[in-house]
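User: Teach me something about this protein's shape.
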Amino acid sequence: MLIEGNEALVTREIDGGSETIALKLPAVISADLRLNEPRYVKLPQIMQAKKNRWKNHAGKMGVSTALRLQAVRYAEPKARQVGEKVGSVAELVEKLKSRQSGLRRIKMNVLVIAEHDGQTLNPATLHAVTAAAKLGEVHLLVAGSGVENIAVQAARLDGVNKVLTADAPHYADGLAEEPAPLAVSLAAGYRYLTAAADAFGKNLMPRIAALLDCPQVSDLVEIVDADTFVRPIYAGNALVTLKCTEAKLVLTFRATAFEAAGSGGNAQIAAVPATPAQKPEPFYWHANCRSWNAPSLTQAKVVVSGGKGLGSKENFDALILPLADTFGRGRRRITCGGGCRIRAQRLSGGADRQSRRAGAFHIAVGISGAIQHVAGMQDSKIVVAVNKDPEAAIFNVADYGIVGDLFEIVPELTAALKA
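Assistant: First, the predicted structure itself:
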C-alpha cells in the first residue's frame, strides 16, 4: 500500500495473481497480516483509551445490533487418520501408485453469481453450483460484456435450471460495485444469493448482503437444511453449526467441500436488464496482473508446500519447483508456509487462506504441522510429508510420511516421479 496525497495505491491478491487499484481518500482498507509487522498495544495506551471511549456507538448511528444469526453447535472437524511412515522414496512411490486418488432438496430458488474472466467460467463456480443445488432450483447469473459464450458454458452445467445474462460494458472489469446492484435487483425471486468463497465472492457478497440488509453466512462446508449450515472456524480446527431463519440469506461455499458440477445440462438462457453503471469515483482501475502460471489454490489438483526447513529462496526454487513440475504446470500449485518468507507476499497467506489449500494430492516438505499448516490439508485425498523430525506434528495428518533430510529425499522423489 502506497499513500500519496489524497490517493492510495493498493495491491491485493486475487485467485491466479494480483491486482492493483488506486482509490481516493478517505477510504476503508483492510490489510493482510503479511503487510507489515504487528504493533502491540502497551499498558499506558490501554489506560488512556479507557478514558477516551468512543461515544458514537452503533445505536446512535442508526445501525441495528440485534442478533440475527444463532450458533447452535460447535464441534471438532472429522480427524484425519494417522498414516504410515515409509522407509524410502521407492517404497513411497509404490504406495502412491497402488492408491488411486480420486477426488434433502428444498424447493426454493437459489441465485448463484458466476465468476469468469471474459472467456471461461472460473472452476470455483462449478463447485458453488453443486452446493446451491442442495438448496433448490439453481439460476446462474452471468454478468459481463460479451458473455454469450460463457452463458452457453453455464447452461451445460448439471444442476443449473436457468442462466441469466446481463450484458453491459460496465460489467467488463469485474469490479464488485457493478454486479452488486444487479444481484439486488433480482433478489426478490430468491431466498439465497450465493457464490464461491474465493476472492471474487469475498469482495462481492458482503456488498450484496449490506444492500439487502440481510445476514451473510460465509465459507460453508455443509448444508444441513434450509436454515442450518456448517462452516469452519479457528483455521479449520473447529466446525460451527449456524441457524438463521431470515427470509433472505447471502451464502458463500468453500469450493473444496463440494464436487464440481458436471457438463450434461441444457438450461434455458434468458437476458435480464443491466443496472445503471455505478462509476464508483473513489476507484479507478490501475492494473490487473494475472502472473502465476498455475491454478488457484482452491482448484489445484496437486499442492506442493515448502516450509522454513528449506532455508532460502534458492533452495525453494531448486527443490520445490522441479518436484511440482513433475505433475504438470496446469495441475499443480506451489505454496510456502511454516514461517518461510519465500514468495510469502504472494503465496503463504494466513490461516483463512491456508484453509482453502486442499488439493487432491498435497506434498508438504519441511513443514512442522502447526495449526495453520494442516488446516489446508483436511480435505486433501492424499497427504505426503517429508520432515527430518520423526515426531513432527505433520505426520499426524499425513497418509504417508518419510523421515529424513529433505535435501536428499526431494531430489530422489522428483527423479522417481519423472521415471
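Now, about its shape. The chain has ten helices and 21 strands. The chain has a mean pLDDT of 82. If you'd like, I can walk through any region in more detail.
User: That's plenty for now, thanks!
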